[in-house]
Write a structure and sequence with these properties.
Blueprint (H helix, E strand, L loop, with lengths): L21 E2 L2 E2 L1 E3 L2 E3 L2 H14 L14
Antiparallel strand pairs: 1-2, 3-4
Bound molecules: zinc ion (ZN).
The site of zinc ion has 8 residues, from loops.
Length: 66
């Protein structure tokens, strides 16, 4: 059970919304700061992280316990 319902860190779309892209119970996109709902939010997120210089090149562990 999740402590709180996660949502997309880019657009705020809640986990479980029809537009939130996931594979069964597992998210498809995330960073070290949270989940991302779609490839477009992931692209936007990582582009901004690169601009800010906070991009982490090492894949983060999935933030959800499955
Ligand atoms: Zn999103």
């Amino acid at each position: 059970m999740l402590a709180k319902t996660p949502s997309c860190v880019e657009c705020g779309l809640p986990w479980g919304a029809p537009a939130f892209r996931h594979e069964d119970e597992a998210p498809l996109y995330w960073s070290d700061t949270g989940l991302l709902c779609s490839v477009s939010c992931a692209t936007q997120h990582f582009d901004r992280r690169r601009e800010e210089g906070t991009f982490a090149p090492i894949p983060a562990d999935c933030p959800i316990d499955l």
